[in-house]
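Table S2 (continued). Query chain:
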Amino acid sequence: MRQASDSEIAEYARQQGLCLITADFDFSDVRNYPPSQYPGLVVLQLPRQATASHINSLLSNFLSQENVVLQLSGRLAIVAPGQVRLRPPP
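Corresponding output:
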């Protein structure tokens, strides 16, 4: 889906029942992508020059927080080092 638009990617994830994980902050706009319509939206807050190791570490730390992951359906998660913000809050 490299050539797909954001809306096409979001619709595919929604129709397939997939959680969308991205570093594209366009997906954090709840007016365009209402979290309640998705199995989960996760936006990774990454530095501009993030390495694959940094991305993997951030994602692994997030996924290890089972209590947060279990609350993800219908929510947007903004994931930064040492911090996860859920919208709407649990």
